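Posting this for the archive.
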Amino acid sequence: MKPGLLASACACVLLSAPAFAQQAPTPRPLVGGHGNNIDAFVAQHDGNADGRLTWQEFDAFRRSRFDATDANGDGTVDVEEYVQEFEDRMREEMEQSRGEQVEQTRRRFAALDADKDGQVSKKEFDASGERVWTEGQKAMASKGDAKADEEKTAEAAARFDRRPNRLALPSSHTAEGFLALYDGNGDGKVERGEFDRARTEQFARTDADRNGRLSQDEYLAEYEDRLDRHIATQTGGSDKQTRVRFGALDTDKDGKMTFAEYQVSGKRTFDAADRNHDGVVDAADAKLPPPPRPERPAAN
């Protein structure tokens, strides 16, 4: 029996078809869990593919995950089995997400290459920079605006129903992203000269052969370098965090997690997805707003 399939209390990512299904369903993509994206949540766990997820189906799915992660077959999951599962699952998710990000970057390069000669000139790069500057200024101007804050609240609610992208790099479409990209001195604002210097440095850093033009390979290499450094920040310390989660699930603190202990988090997940509290997760729940996030206690 191989480790690597148990969904953690904080994420449920599909790696294989549920063992309890009568017939192997069509392979499903990696999707986020927690009941946040109702359609994806149902598709991930709906063993008979009828569009309705009952607690019995969800319980059976989690049972198969638990048993598959129980590498030594003793009926419990210890911390090393739990950590191994998380590492295997995150590696697969990161690899898929990285591929998606790189493909999007290929499309961005094609959009930058206005004359379609397979190269991005400094002029083409600067034309893109003007659009980035305009977007960034709009984002900065709307920061703290009541209407913009209301729109952000609605957007945040929509994001709650989407799979989070762990690998998303900062974007100039938001004030936070614009500052992260171009506020070199950390003063909370971006002057035009500061922005231009950052763009010039980026072009020079990307132009590996110093010919004044960017090839697709150069453009991708620069992006992948930044992406891989970002991945390192996302995965760093994950082992410690996973062990902390295991400690929270292991309620009797005996170093082994039983299925009953594991299903405490499973019940919370199912109940969060069952927004109308009828005992079934289906399209009716997807039409309802997500439950409010619990407030964090104020720091002392």
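The chain is about 55% helix and 5% strand. The chain has two domains: 1-76+258-300, 98-235.
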